[in-house]
Protein backbone atom coordinates (compact mmCIF):
# COMPACT_ATOMS: atom_id res chain seq x y z
CA UNK A 1 0.00 0.00 0.00
CA UNK A 2 2.54 2.62 1.16
CA UNK A 3 6.32 2.40 1.23
CA UNK A 4 8.92 4.96 2.23
CA UNK A 5 12.42 3.98 1.17
CA UNK A 6 15.54 5.85 2.33
CA UNK A 7 13.66 9.14 2.65
CA UNK A 8 15.79 12.12 3.65
CA UNK A 9 14.51 15.64 4.19
CA UNK A 10 15.83 18.89 5.58
CA UNK A 11 14.05 22.07 6.64
CA UNK A 12 16.07 25.29 6.38
CA UNK A 13 19.21 23.17 5.93
CA UNK A 14 18.55 21.27 9.15
CA UNK A 15 18.28 17.49 8.57
CA UNK A 16 14.93 16.22 9.91
CA UNK A 17 14.52 12.77 8.32
CA UNK A 18 17.55 10.56 7.70
CA UNK A 19 17.18 7.53 5.38
CA UNK A 20 13.72 6.73 6.72
CA UNK A 21 12.14 3.49 5.52
CA UNK A 22 8.77 2.11 6.55
CA UNK A 23 5.97 0.09 5.01
CA UNK A 24 2.21 -0.13 5.51
CA UNK A 25 0.46 -3.17 4.09
CA UNK A 26 -3.08 -2.91 2.76
CA UNK A 27 -5.69 -3.08 5.52
CA UNK A 28 -3.24 -2.71 8.41
CA UNK A 29 -2.87 -0.07 11.13
CA UNK A 30 0.67 1.10 11.84
CA UNK A 31 1.94 3.27 14.68
CA UNK A 32 4.71 5.89 14.43
CA UNK A 33 5.93 6.62 17.94
CA UNK A 34 8.36 9.31 19.00
CA UNK A 35 8.90 12.34 21.19
CA UNK A 36 8.03 15.86 20.09
CA UNK A 37 10.51 16.99 17.47
CA UNK A 38 11.53 13.45 16.53
CA UNK A 39 10.22 13.77 12.97
CA UNK A 40 6.69 12.31 13.08
CA UNK A 41 4.88 15.32 11.64
CA UNK A 42 7.60 15.87 9.05
CA UNK A 43 7.17 12.27 7.87
CA UNK A 44 3.40 12.79 7.54
CA UNK A 45 3.87 16.03 5.61
CA UNK A 46 6.38 14.37 3.32
CA UNK A 47 3.87 11.63 2.48
CA UNK A 48 1.25 14.30 1.79
CA UNK A 49 3.59 16.13 -0.57
CA UNK A 50 3.77 19.23 1.61
CA UNK A 51 7.57 19.00 1.96
CA UNK A 52 10.00 18.08 -0.84
CA UNK A 53 12.31 15.09 -0.44
CA UNK A 54 16.07 15.42 -0.69
CA UNK A 55 16.51 11.73 -1.21
CA UNK A 56 14.62 8.45 -1.34
CA UNK A 57 11.19 7.54 -2.66
CA UNK A 58 7.57 7.24 -1.52
CA UNK A 59 5.50 4.59 -3.28
CA UNK A 60 1.73 4.23 -3.07
CA UNK A 61 -0.07 1.31 -4.68
CA UNK A 62 3.09 0.50 -6.68
CA UNK A 63 3.30 4.01 -8.13
CA UNK A 64 5.58 6.93 -7.28
CA UNK A 65 3.86 9.33 -4.87
CA UNK A 66 6.75 11.67 -4.04
CA UNK A 67 6.73 13.36 -7.43
CA UNK A 68 2.98 14.10 -7.48
CA UNK A 69 1.52 17.47 -6.37
CA UNK A 70 -0.05 17.48 -2.90
CA UNK A 71 -3.60 17.91 -4.18
CA UNK A 72 -3.45 14.55 -5.97
CA UNK A 73 -3.61 12.74 -2.61
CA UNK A 74 -7.38 13.22 -2.32
CA UNK A 75 -7.87 11.74 -5.79
CA UNK A 76 -5.87 8.69 -4.69
CA UNK A 77 -8.06 8.16 -1.63
CA UNK A 78 -5.54 9.44 0.94
CA UNK A 79 -6.97 11.28 3.94
CA UNK A 80 -4.95 13.39 6.39
CA UNK A 81 -5.69 14.57 9.91
CA UNK A 82 -2.99 17.17 10.73
CA UNK A 83 -1.92 17.68 14.32
CA UNK A 84 -3.37 21.21 14.38
CA UNK A 85 -6.66 20.16 12.67
CA UNK A 86 -6.54 22.96 10.03
CA UNK A 87 -10.30 23.56 9.94
CA UNK A 88 -11.70 26.54 8.04
CA UNK A 89 -13.05 28.82 10.83
CA UNK A 90 -16.04 30.35 9.00
CA UNK A 91 -17.14 27.04 7.43
CA UNK A 92 -19.75 24.82 9.02
CA UNK A 93 -18.77 21.37 10.25
CA UNK A 94 -20.25 19.75 7.15
CA UNK A 95 -18.53 22.20 4.80
CA UNK A 96 -15.18 21.40 6.43
CA UNK A 97 -15.81 17.69 5.96
CA UNK A 98 -16.72 18.15 2.30
CA UNK A 99 -13.62 20.16 1.35
CA UNK A 100 -11.85 17.14 -0.14
CA UNK A 101 -14.86 16.25 -2.27
CA UNK A 102 -15.04 19.79 -3.61
CA UNK A 103 -11.33 19.68 -4.42
CA UNK A 104 -11.77 16.58 -6.57
CA UNK A 105 -15.11 17.58 -8.09
CA UNK A 106 -16.82 14.60 -6.47
CA UNK A 107 -20.55 15.13 -5.88
CA UNK A 108 -21.24 11.68 -4.37
CA UNK A 109 -22.23 12.15 -0.72
CA UNK A 110 -22.31 8.42 0.06
CA UNK A 111 -19.11 8.59 2.08
CA UNK A 112 -20.38 11.59 4.04
CA UNK A 113 -23.44 9.54 5.00
CA UNK A 114 -21.15 6.70 6.09
CA UNK A 115 -19.12 9.10 8.27
CA UNK A 116 -22.30 10.35 9.95
CA UNK A 117 -23.29 6.75 10.67
CA UNK A 118 -19.82 6.02 12.06
CA UNK A 119 -19.83 9.19 14.21
CA UNK A 120 -23.45 10.23 14.87
CA UNK A 121 -22.31 13.10 17.09
CA UNK A 122 -20.80 14.81 14.04
CA UNK A 123 -24.15 14.84 12.28
CA UNK A 124 -25.78 16.49 15.29
CA UNK A 125 -23.68 19.64 14.91
CA UNK A 126 -23.20 19.55 11.13
CA UNK A 127 -24.65 23.06 10.71
CA UNK A 128 -22.57 24.69 13.44
CA UNK A 129 -19.46 26.72 12.71
CA UNK A 130 -16.39 24.55 13.25
CA UNK A 131 -14.71 27.05 15.56
CA UNK A 132 -17.68 27.00 17.95
CA UNK A 133 -16.76 23.44 18.97
CA UNK A 134 -14.39 22.27 21.67
CA UNK A 135 -10.88 21.18 20.72
CA UNK A 136 -11.83 17.52 21.04
CA UNK A 137 -14.92 17.94 18.89
CA UNK A 138 -12.81 19.71 16.28
CA UNK A 139 -10.53 16.67 16.21
CA UNK A 140 -13.57 14.53 15.41
CA UNK A 141 -14.47 16.90 12.57
CA UNK A 142 -10.91 16.74 11.23
CA UNK A 143 -11.07 12.94 11.45
CA UNK A 144 -14.39 12.98 9.58
CA UNK A 145 -12.83 15.11 6.83
CA UNK A 146 -9.90 12.68 6.58
CA UNK A 147 -12.32 9.74 6.38
CA UNK A 148 -14.30 11.27 3.53
CA UNK A 149 -11.09 11.59 1.50
CA UNK A 150 -9.30 8.53 2.85
CA UNK A 151 -11.01 5.61 1.18
CA UNK A 152 -7.62 3.85 0.87
CA UNK A 153 -5.17 5.36 3.35
CA UNK A 154 -5.49 7.49 6.48
CA UNK A 155 -2.67 9.54 8.01
CA UNK A 156 -3.52 10.57 11.58
CA UNK A 157 -0.97 12.93 13.13
CA UNK A 158 -1.24 13.03 16.94
CA UNK A 159 -5.03 12.53 16.93
CA UNK A 160 -5.19 12.31 20.75
CA UNK A 161 -2.98 15.31 21.53
CA UNK A 162 -4.73 17.91 23.71
CA UNK A 163 -8.00 15.97 23.81
CA UNK A 164 -9.98 15.25 27.00
CA UNK A 165 -9.87 11.57 28.06
CA UNK A 166 -13.50 10.88 27.15
CA UNK A 167 -13.07 12.25 23.62
CA UNK A 168 -9.71 10.52 23.24
CA UNK A 169 -11.48 7.26 24.04
CA UNK A 170 -14.16 8.08 21.46
CA UNK A 171 -11.51 8.78 18.84
CA UNK A 172 -9.88 5.45 19.64
CA UNK A 173 -13.21 3.63 19.28
CA UNK A 174 -13.74 5.15 15.82
CA UNK A 175 -10.20 4.30 14.72
CA UNK A 176 -10.68 0.76 16.02
CA UNK A 177 -13.89 0.41 14.01
CA UNK A 178 -11.97 1.25 10.84
CA UNK A 179 -10.29 -2.16 10.94
CA UNK A 180 -13.57 -3.58 9.66
CA UNK A 181 -13.34 -1.27 6.62
CA UNK A 182 -9.92 -2.68 5.59
CA UNK A 183 -8.42 0.81 5.50
CA UNK A 184 -4.68 1.28 5.81
CA UNK A 185 -3.89 3.66 8.69
CA UNK A 186 -0.74 5.40 9.96
CA UNK A 187 -1.08 6.89 13.47
CA UNK A 188 1.58 9.05 15.09
CA UNK A 189 1.78 9.39 18.87
CA UNK A 190 4.33 10.57 21.39
CA UNK A 191 3.89 7.28 23.28
CA UNK A 192 2.10 3.97 22.98
CA UNK A 193 -0.83 4.81 25.24
CA UNK A 194 -3.89 5.02 23.00
CA UNK A 195 -3.14 3.01 19.87
CA UNK A 196 -1.63 -0.08 21.50
CA UNK A 197 -4.73 -2.25 21.05
CA UNK A 198 -5.34 -1.46 17.38
CA UNK A 199 -1.93 -1.30 15.69
CA UNK A 200 -0.50 -4.25 13.79
CA UNK A 201 3.07 -2.99 14.04
CA UNK A 202 4.90 0.04 15.36
CA UNK A 203 7.81 2.10 14.12
CA UNK A 204 9.82 4.22 16.56
CA UNK A 205 11.27 7.52 15.32
CA UNK A 206 14.22 9.09 17.09
CA UNK A 207 16.23 12.07 15.79
CA UNK A 208 14.84 11.57 12.31
CA UNK A 209 15.64 7.86 12.07
CA UNK A 210 13.02 5.12 12.06
CA UNK A 211 13.09 1.47 13.07
CA UNK A 212 10.58 -1.27 13.87
CA UNK A 213 9.65 -1.37 17.53
CA UNK A 214 9.49 -4.61 19.52
CA UNK A 215 5.96 -4.22 20.87
CA UNK A 216 6.14 -7.35 23.01
CA UNK A 217 9.19 -6.02 24.81
CA UNK A 218 7.55 -2.58 25.10
CA UNK A 219 4.48 -4.14 26.70
UniProtKB/TrEMBL annotation:
Q: Does the keyword Zinc apply?
A: no
Supply the name of the protein.
High-affinity branched-chain amino acid transport ATP-binding protein LivF
One of the GO biological process terms = L-amino acid transport
Could you tell me the gene encoding this protein? livF_2
Q: Which domain of life is it from?
A: Bacteria
Q: Which protein family is named in the record?
A: Belongs to the ABC transporter superfamily.
Residue ranges of the ABC transporter domain? 2-219
Report the source organism: Pelagimonas phthalicica
Q: Which UniProt keywords apply?
A: Amino-acid transport, ATP-binding, Nucleotide-binding, Transport
Task: Please give the PROSITE patterns that the UniProt record associates with this protein.
Answer: ABC_TRANSPORTER_1, ABC_TRANSPORTER_2
Q: GO MF annotations for this entry?
A: ATP binding; ATP hydrolysis activity; branched-chain amino acid transmembrane transporter activity
List the InterPro entries.
AAA+_ATPase, ABC_transporter-like_ATP-bd, ABC_transporter-like_CS, BCAA_Transport_ATP-bd_LivF, P-loop_NTPase
